[in-house]
Specification:
- With 107 residues, the chain is an alpha+beta fold.
- It has one domain: 3-Layer(aba) Sandwich (Trna Endonuclease, Chain: A, domain 1), CATH 3.40.1350.
- A four-stranded mixed beta sheet has the order 1-2-3-4, sandwiched between helices.
- The protein is globular and about 30 Å long.
Length: 107
């Protein structure tokens, strides 16, 4: 997949899993000075909360990460919509093909 770091691509399937994609984004965010949060076991959390919260004042980003073919749930759409209504908060849905855009958001 063009633009995606090679370590994010499964060598057997050639597909970027959501777990690999998430780790790639987390690594980049931390490298660029962002404080990062991810709920590691969301089974007891309210459905729809974004995968990552990234903070580097004055910015706060909420990222929902999806595989190329992944779809947002109704709950995810609702939560992202609520967050969009908050001044100063950025929300994004990012897929591996969005890697150049993700780098731009984090820079």
């Amino acid at each position: 997949m063009p633009g995606v770091p090679a370590h994010a691509i499964d060598p057997v399937s050639g597909v970027v899993t959501e777990k690999q994609w998430q780790q790639t984004v987390l690594d980049a965010a931390q490298l660029l000075g962002w404080w990062t949060y991810h709920t590691y076991d969301s089974r007891r959390s309210t459905p729809g909360f974004p995968d990552l919260v990234l903070i580097r004042p004055p910015r706060v980003l909420f990222l929902e990460l999806k595989r190329e073919t992944g779809r947002l749930t109704v709950a995810q759409r609702e939560v992202l919509g609520l967050l969009d209504g908050c001044p100063g908060v950025e929300t994004h849905v990012a897929r591996p093909s969005d890697w150049p855009q993700v780098v731009e958001w984090l820079s």
